[in-house]
Amino acid sequence: MTAETQPRGRKPRRLTASRIGIYAFLVFAAAFFLLPFYVMIVTSFKTMPEIQQGNIFGLPTDFTLKPWSTAWAHACTGVNCEGIRVGVLNSFEIMIPAATLSILLGAINGYALSFWRPRGGNLIFAVLLLGAFIPYQVYLYPLVRMLSKVSLYNTLPGIITVHVIFGLPVMTLLFRNYYVAVPVDLFKAARIDGGGFWTIFFQLMIPMSGPILVVAAILQVTGIWNDFLFGLIFAGRDHLPMTVELNNIVNTTTGTKAYNVNMAATILTALVPLIVYFVSGRWFVRGIAAGAVKG
Amino acid sequence: MQAHKGRHALGIAASLALGLAAAQAQAAEKAEVIHWWTSGGEHAAVKEFEKAFDAQGGKWVDAAVAGGGGDSARADGINRIIGGNPPAAMQFNTGKQFDELVSNGLLRNLDPLAKEYGWKDKINPVLLNAVSQDGHMYAVPVDIHSNIWLWYSPELLKKAGVEPPKTWDDLFTDLDALKKQGVIPLAQAGSAWTQALTFFNVMIGEGGKDLYMKVLKDRDVAAVKSPEFLKVAQTFGKLRDYVDSGMQGRQWNQATALVINDKAGFNFMGDWAKGEMELQNKVPGKDVGCIPALGHNTYWVGGDVFVFPKLNDKAEIKAQDLLAKVLLEPKVQLAFNEKKGAVPVLKDVPSQDMDQCAQQGLALLKKGDYVPSSDILISPDMSGSITDLVASFFTDKSQTPENFVNRFAQIIGG
Amino acid sequence: MKPLRLRRLSAQVALVPTWIIVIFAYIGTILWTIRISFTSSGILPKYDFVGFKQYDRLFQSSRWTISVENLAIFGLIFVIGCLVLGFLMAVFLDQRIKGEGIFRTIFLYPYAMSFIVTGLVWAWILNPTLGIQQAVQNWGWHGFTFDWLSRGDRAIYLVGFAGMWQSAGLVMAILLAGLRGVDEDIWKAARVDGIPPWRVYLSIVIPMLSSMFVTAVVLLAIAVVKVYDIVVAMTGGGPGISTEVPAKFVIDYLFNRQNIALATAAASVMFVAVLVVLGPWLYNQYFRQDRRAS
């Protein structure tokens, strides 16, 4: 990963006009990127009367924590007023098994495709590759019907299945590209030692897949957490993920719009991927580069 | 020994089965109901159904789905019916929305219940017609709603020194006066269906019921190209100048609330708006003025129905029977419709307790000054195309009425 | 040692779940979708054959036309905006500046957030009554109006802009990695020859980074075709239907408008369009290399 090496631009000079210009641009850009986050935070600590005055960029004068507690435990979606916390639980319930399964399956695929060259391997690879780029709308309706047939539509296993299905292309690609770079001699040696398919996978491949597993986990955790479309269509009323709950809360037709509650709920929804981002640091960038086919 | 063991096992199985049956009997009247009544007033109304159903031994399982004027709830219910996991009952608008479910044999034929309770003599014939196919009844109508009301704030009109309008010209005079006062002249919601509702207000109020029937029922393209229809388009287009920029993202009840709280002068909305007034202890007809289809005073017969998907479980079917019966009990009808701001579907329900607006509506119904709702006349598909056209015209001032008429003619002409 | 055939067999067995997914969830669904698009189905699939009737209707539908136009506008703003802003940020970050890590973190964090969150935040900031417009008016500029979000002819631009905010960091990250790979000697040579830096970027560095640019464009283009969440969150397709997009068209007709034949026709058009554009690139990118390698 080249991003970790030193910058190779022109040598720094004294503080010239162009240096000032560079910093001015960067600071300006940073302000642009931070502004929405700032607005979200200040809005979430304001009272509604203060918001009505229309000073969206101002700091809260009448600081309150109430929007947060409302967003967490009392905000309504339809007639249910249990807040966004329901969605948090659902999102974890969906994300953990879906991420685990799709990573495992992706790793098996990548390993099988790069070392064992099974019959039809190229076809699998081609379909998955194309599948990563095609708009999901093409798959949706038949998938609804298929899942209904096996009683998985609108269930937790159903939405997990959908995430595994559509996480498969990127995961397969990720692991295939990683394993392709593993020296084939290592694999051959293991085979001469009598290692079978699964032995080699679990005892040789997985232990040396640390970095790519981290990258895969980052991609899947943020990707599944941020999903809206699948959750909306496949999760069913009892398992709606946080993104869908959030949109429902914002669009629920009771009383006037509580922008402060909405913003608190929005921050809560963004929290998990943001934590992943800040904790993972450079790994996140690596994930972007590695998962370059992610849709 | 062997036989004995066998009998023993049989005994266990039998007692198990008995236990199961008992458990089922206990949960017998459990019914999951999908609906989209999620605003404050609607929620209060649907609670009346829930209370009555539970009081007679049922267990109402609420599956409210918010959003899109019922789009999301209908999608949810239809997908579950098709997916083989149907709810006990689900809401539709009176009209063609559930036709295809009927023709695919997915809904229960309610004739036996209708016979038992004598519904066919008691229910308003327009509605009975709308819920029947080939003489068989497939849905239970629960309320009559008119979409074509104009609500106004008497206080703001007084402040602006104008009278409640009698004609569309009056309305524009009033709107101008309100604009000068610096209040929102016309409170309009952002969702496309509310804009379509406003359009039908203009179409029936300005154009009259004959024009409406010619266009929607007879699909008469010449009527769309007539000067009368052009006038409708022009009037509708003119309304664009009186909405505020807060329209986008505003829900219907928030728009209505602006009028209720004297922050805006007028709002076009169905009579379910009264539910919101009730919630704020305002009296419809007094604190908030009502005009049924400004211009040509007309009532619109639409509303809501419940359909009952075919089920296999006997206990669940029993629950459906009970629910259907409860929904149409006169007492329940009255309690529900009062909160909902609607008119009961039964002919013999007394009307003297109703508010002034409902009285006006009933009078129009009796006189025969009514039209069937657009959902009764046209398919959801065509209805959707009209909504698209109306909404894109209403939110983009660069579109001309002439252009609107041409595109409308294309939709009607099929 | 087990015979080779047996071990190959276990590889095949391991791929069974993937085969099932590929056959049913990918190939099967696509074929099924295309099949339905040639029928007259409404809520339920009906397996008659009506030729291209649904496609005719689709291309005459103003909602579809608007959706496609919006996709083009959104796409242009989003892709060009991300590329320009991302490139500038990458170049400026590559000037041995202090606090590079902090800047980089700030530029990229929106990408960790969902389009739903992005849409909601920007809808709030751009709120025509309480957002930027009101704030600027409160600051004393009373005539200031910025109500594009409630204007049918402008709202889609703002959606593109919000999308750019979310994804520009992605381009920055990709291009910065590329810039770090540019040979130091090129800069030395340029300085010796007295060529101004901007010329070096324009005529030497950008062409060198072309594969990075292609990757970025492909990534962004996929996001464009799939755009749905941000529209739902930011405008709900409104005002009116002025910010509808094809993906939303399909979902609406599939689940709300009860016309699955028209919906699948629209989905099929999207599918074919993506196939035509991306097919050659994908082939080039993966399979030609493969052949070369083996």
Automatic annotation (TrEMBL), chain A:
Domain ABC transmembrane type-1: 88-280
Keyword Hydrolase attached: no
Swiss-Prot/TrEMBL keywords: Membrane, Transmembrane, Transmembrane helix, Transport
PROSITE patterns for this protein: ABC_TM1
Subcellular location: Cell membrane
Membrane topology: Multi-pass membrane protein
Transmembrane segment boundaries: 20-41, 94-116, 123-144, 156-175, 196-219, 263-285
InterPro entries referenced in this protein's UniProt entry, alphabetically: MetI-like, MetI-like_sf
UniProt similarity note: Belongs to the binding-protein-dependent transport system permease family.
Protein name: Sugar ABC transporter permease
TrEMBL record, chain B:
Signal peptide: 1-27
Main location: periplasm
Pfam families: SBP_bac_1
Location in or out of the cell: Periplasm
InterPro entries reported in the protein's UniProt record: Bact_solute-bd_prot1 (IPR050490), SBP (IPR006059)
Keywords noted in UniProt: Signal, Transport
PANTHER family according to UniProt: ARABINOSE-BINDING PROTEIN-RELATED (PTHR43649), BINDING PROTEIN COMPONENT OF ABC SUGAR TRANSPORTER-RELATED (PTHR43649:SF28)
Family indicated by similarity: Belongs to the bacterial solute-binding protein 1 family.
Record function comment: Part of a binding-protein-dependent transport system for a sugar.
Protein's UniProt name: Probable sugar-binding periplasmic protein
Organism: Thioclava sediminum
TrEMBL record, chain C:
Topological category with respect to the lipid bilayer: Multi-pass membrane protein
InterPro entries for this protein: ABC_transporter_permease, MetI-like, MetI-like_sf
Domain ABC transmembrane type-1: residue ranges: 68-279
Keywords: Cell membrane, Membrane, Transmembrane, Transmembrane helix, Transport
Locations listed in the record: Cell membrane
Membrane-spanning parts: 12-34, 71-93, 105-125, 155-179, 200-225, 260-283
Domain of life per record: Bacteria
Keyword match Cell membrane: yes
Record-linked CDD domains: TM_PBP2 (cd06261)
Family classification: Belongs to the binding-protein-dependent transport system permease family.
UniProt name for this protein: Sugar ABC transporter permease
Organism: Thioclava sediminum
